[in-house]
Amino acid sequence: MKIILISFIFILIINASAFAQSQCDTRPDLLSYLKTKYNEEIVSMAVTNTGTLVERLESNNKETWSLIITFPVTQQSCLIAAGTGWKELKVKEGEQL
Known about the structure:
This protein is of the alpha+beta class.
């Protein structure tokens, strides 16, 4: 039982540390960071039915991309995904993916 309790506490500490290092900031600061570090700019955006702003950024050379969300109440923006190799799919009318 003692090992289980110690393991549980260790997991809580790791998760708390990861939460503290989350990729959230004000929208202007987060956009500035992505522009400076990766040369990324907004290429598409959408608003969810709850008012959350979702934006996709992409570097000029199309090597990197990021997805950020901005919460309407707090105006806090968070990086939710990032990577390389974003592919646009061209689907013709009547075709399925």
